[in-house]
Write a structure and sequence with these properties.
The protein is α/β, with parallel strands linked by helices and 388 residues long. It is 41% helix and 16% strand. The protein folds into two domains: 12-37 and 286-385, Aspartate Aminotransferase, domain 1 (Alpha-Beta Complex), CATH 3.90.1150; 39-281, Aspartate Aminotransferase, domain 2 (3-Layer(aba) Sandwich), CATH 3.40.640. The longest helix is centred in the C-terminal third of the chain and has 24 residues, at 285-308. The site of glutamine has 5 residues, from loops. Residues 26-384 form the Aminotransferase class I/classII large domain.
Length: 388
């Protein structure tokens, strides 16, 4: 393994999901639903397969139907107008979109600022691009139960140097569940314009925001549309994480750049599934509302169970993850905790420390996924109560 990748080892998701299987534990680690997405969308994929649509290489930028559906979704929801022919690119999940964007836009030695804790592929992809990652830490605010991990805007501002090329933003944020507010996003946008930075924004949880929280794409702020690559994914919104259909929307120059990298990573992927996702994006608003409400109810079940089991719970404003603090249980090392949890309680979780450069900052935090059936969440909570 080369020096760029040597520090990364095996992704925590593979490690913890394997542990769930080998111990027969309930897997609240890796974020994937235990119920597949809509029947009619599965049928759409079967129809595409059967009718011979997408069984051979689809077009490099993605099939026109899906690019049009992505553009229509951005316009309908956010008033963002993108040309499906020049400003939309279909990718092999958000994962490839992140990789291709960083490989295309980062020069060796460029600094990339990311919100810490950060989704694990960010660090690896920045490294593969030869960039230097510069984390800005979201810190818990004890007085603020809701979305308690917040960005310090002064710190973000102070982190930008002459070598900063790109801001890598994620909202709603994995693993903390923070949804950046309009004020925070406006400040990020102002900074990006002032310092002439590119922005890659991972918005794969755009449909998973709860209560009063609102997802506002960074690309909607003044001066941002032309400097922002926005990333979306069907895996999260439609509960088909195995299909690996994602996309970016950006200005023609940025899409061309990202496509230059993407064409040599996978070239294309997921032919028949692209047709199905085009139909999914056109589902009526009631689908998205019901999905959000369903996940909100599951959040309540797990949050309550974790609190009763003695965890300090940071109730997330978005995503399907709950970050907890294990110190009230008399524990301080989340990694050690997640290693013994399957044996002691029959539950698998993710130690947030793996998403930090400043490991000590993340040590006491552990993430649980609630994209599971309520009965499964209840059973997990019962098992966790036995820890006390
Ligand atoms: N994004 C999901 C998570 O955060 C799964 C990621 C993965 O398996 N690579 O848990």
């Amino acid at each position: 393994l080369n020096r760029r990748l040597a520090e990364f080892g095996t992704t925590v998701f593979a490690e913890m999901s394997a542990l769930a299987v080998s111990t027969g534990s309930i897997n609240l680690g890796q974020g994937f639903p235990d119920t597949d997405g809509p029947e009619e969308i599965r049928e759409a994929a079967v129809r595409a397969l059967r009718d011979g649509r997408g069984n051979q290489y689809p077009p490099g930028p993605g099939i026109p139907e899906l690019r049009q559906a992505v553009a229509a979704h951005q316009l309908r929801r956010y008033g963002l107008s993108y040309d499906p022919d020049t400003e939309v690119l279909i990718t092999a999940g958000a994962t490839e979109a992140i990789a291709a964007a960083l490989l295309a836009l980062v020069e060796p030695g460029d600094e990339v600022i990311a919100l810490e804790p950060y989704y694990d592929s960010y660090a690896a992809c920045i490294a593969m691009a030869g960039g230097t990652r510069v984390p800005v830490t979201l810190r818990p605010h004890i007085e603020d139960e809701e979305a308690a991990f917040r960005l310090d805007l002064d710190e973000l501002r102070a982190t930008v140097t002459d070598r900063t090329r790109l801001l890598l933003i994620n909202t709603p944020h994995n693993p903390t569940g923070t949804v950046l507010t309009r004020e925070e996003l406006a400040a990020i946008a102002e900074l990006a314009v002032e310092r002439d930075l590119l922005v890659v924004t991972d918005e794969v949880y755009e449909h998973l925001v709860f209560d009063d929280a609102e997802h506002i794409p960074l690309a909607t702020f003044p001066g941002m549309r032309e400097r922002t690559v926005t990333i979306g994914s069907a895996g999260k919104t439609f509960s088909f994480t195995g299909w690996k259909v994602g996309w970016i929307t950006a200005s023609p120059g940025l899409v061309t750049a990202v496509r230059s990298a993407k064409q040599f990573l996978t070239y294309v992927s997921s032919g028949p599934f692209q047709y199905a996702v085009a139909e999914a994006l056109a589902l009526p608003e009631s689908y998205f509302t019901a999905f959000r409400e369903d996940m909100r109810a599951r959040r309540e079940v797990l949050a309550e169970g974790l609190a009763e089991a003695g965890f300090r719970v940071f109730r997330p404003a978005g995503t399907y993850f709950i970050t907890t603090d294990i110190r009230p249980l008399g524990e301080t090392d989340g990694y050690a905790f997640c290693r013994f949890l399957p044996d002691r309680a029959g539950v698998v979780a993710i130690p947030n420390a793996v998403f930090y450069d400043h490991r000590a900052e993340g040590a006491p935090f552990v993430r649980f996924a609630f994209c599971k059936q309520p009965t499964v969440l209840q059973e997990a909570a019962e098992r966790l109560k036995a820890l006390a």
